[in-house]
User: What shape does this take?
Amino acid sequence: MGAAGFRAALYHWRVNASDPLLRTGLSAQIREFIVEGITAGRWEPGERIVERRIATELGVSQGPVREALRQLEALRLVESLPNRGARVRPFTEEDLGEIFPVRAGLERTAAELALPRLAARVDALERHNRRLAEAAESGDLPEQMRLSIDFHREVVETAGNRLLTSVWESLGIELWTTLSLRLHQTEIYSKSAEHAVLIEAFRRQDPEAPRMLHDHVMNYAP
Amino acid sequence: MGAAGFRAALYHWRVNASDPLLRTGLSAQIREFIVEGITAGRWEPGERIVERRIATELGVSQGPVREALRQLEALRLVESLPNRGARVRPFTEEDLGEIFPVRAGLERTAAELALPRLAARVDALERHNRRLAEAAESGDLPEQMRLSIDFHREVVETAGNRLLTSVWESLGIELWTTLSLRLHQTEIYSKSAEHAVLIEAFRRQDPEAPRMLHDHVMNYAP
DNA sequence: CATTGATCAATGATCGATCATATTGCTCCC
DNA sequence: GGGAGCAATATGATCGATCATTGATCAATG
Assistant: This one.
């Protein structure tokens, strides 16, 4: 969404404010605007993001922009220093690599918690995995990524620990995977075969399943 | 800190703005004010926290209060709905119990990553643990809690994964432990003996150490 | 020529006021 | 009585303006 259409989109949003998930407010929209700017290369890593410049450009005030930047700080997409504003975080390979052990650890825990309940969900997981295989065949990379992550999200949510889910979501896997693909030309994975092995382990409630999931996640790591 | 002394304290802070770690800004101070209000029982769980009321009381404007509330939302201490403001999160036993598996999983991962380097830090850990034992003898519960958590923090930081550290810190262990002690009269632990066992495992780089740490953390759980 | 201090522009931090929404309480009609 | 409007109020969301800090520039000084 370019700046030109921002106000129009805002109006549309106000009119359709029925879905609570969309009633997210200005700052969420500005956040998406900035995210797109970063992924599209409008701001280079390390470059400053000036609150008032964005505010003027979008025809909003400084407040919501500020709020959006704080949210992006929590996603580790920008960093900011007191009284010196925000800049795009100059993420290195090392930054990207740090995600995998954390994610692997969380998902191992998730699998441990979810194991008794996972057997009942293997059907859903298999439907998922079938769609992943289709996406891989048709070469739809974004869809492949989404479905692959959804598989893991399903496991995490089955654990039934809301904090765990929230921490896992805060890693922003989709965002960082997209950035990683775009900025580092990382090879895309076609993991539906590995997922199938995991699903079988879930089905028989294999006590090794958490470790298998852990190792599977670590194999994404560069 | 009561509201009466807030402005005076603020002035004092402005004058001594030399330490960069203290130059945290208004919202951080307001955040602490609200945290103290919650721990002291000024706001009951579930009660609304009205932005403008706090702003008026502290002689500041709505903005920084809003920002403070967003930070507390990230700590899961308050929850907020769009257009309907913030309220103290009515944390249940279940909420508190959800922390332990997440923390245990993170620390197991930390220990795995830190294992090669932990042997070099056992001296520091032992000094820590000695002080913990002293605090336990003298019955200084808050100090006992701080030192005990610091032991774990040391392990997490030794892993050398900044994301892991940041995620672990975001759990707000000190805060939630304090609240748990205050609100639920949970029994306090004297864990320096268990810590000693862990330190020995670190010293010999026992591959079982990560699992031992995991189980140790889970034993805190209610 | 390096260093120090003054000045200024840029911009983050904060403020006071206004707009928009949710809630409350009241009226009126069935 | 009781529910469907409807006004009044409380308060979150946003705005436009001001204050305060930072970093750059440059002159004065040793």
In short: Residues 25-27, 60-64, 83-84 of chain B lie near DNA strand C (CB under 10 Å from a C1').
